[in-house]
Amino acid sequence: MDVQRYGQVASSTLVFCLVFLSAGCATKKYVQTYTHDNIKPLEVKLDNTNKQVAENGEKITDLDRKTEKGISQAQSSADEANQAASKAQQSAVDARGLAQQGISDAATVKQELENADNFQSVKKATILFGINKSKLTPEDTETLDTLAQTATGMKHYVIEVRGFTDSRGPKPYNLQLSERRADAVVRYLTLDKQIPLVRIYQAGYGIDDPAAPNKTRSGREQNRRVDVSILVPQSSAAAELQQGQTPGSESQSQQSSTTTTPQQ
What we know:
single chain, alpha/beta, CATH 3.30.1330.60, 2 domains, five-stranded mixed β-sheet, 5 helices, 13% strand, rod-shaped
């Protein structure tokens, strides 16, 4: 009986151990299987999540750089725009100034053009001739020398030469005689004094425009003449006369006039 009981106990114990060991192995295998089927995907997801986080971090960093660059460029553009606006404003001010200057200059030019035809006599000389004569005397040339010296010191001038006669004799003859007298003065001024011919205007008037009545000998003597005048634009008369002044000449505020002695 005891032996039989002992055998049963031993068998029971063996069976229990086998069951326990079998259950332990099954649990370990279950745990391993569960871990592989559930934990491994979580690890993969975690790795993917970490990668995504890293990528997002890089994107955020790149976005920050781009944002800072954009802000810097925007600030630079704003500065450039301000500078351009400042330059544009200054250009507008300069343009207004130039426009005003242009208007002022145009007004000045207009005034000068209006005065261009308004000539003023600044120096005169009268050459007197004998009866039927048209040659110059040494006294006449001295008078013309002084007049030419005044003219050559000027920039803008013309010389007017007008010949006349007294009333005696035929009108056609007197007209030709007045022209010969004017020619004699012009030849001397252009050949001897080198006055450009383009600056000289001449004409013979015969008995017209007498300086004195022809009824007296003295009056006829004054009419046998050539009137020579230096003319300058009215707007620059004072300056031109100042340029043409010579030592010992008259004041620029006075008009100079000279008359020679008539030939006998």
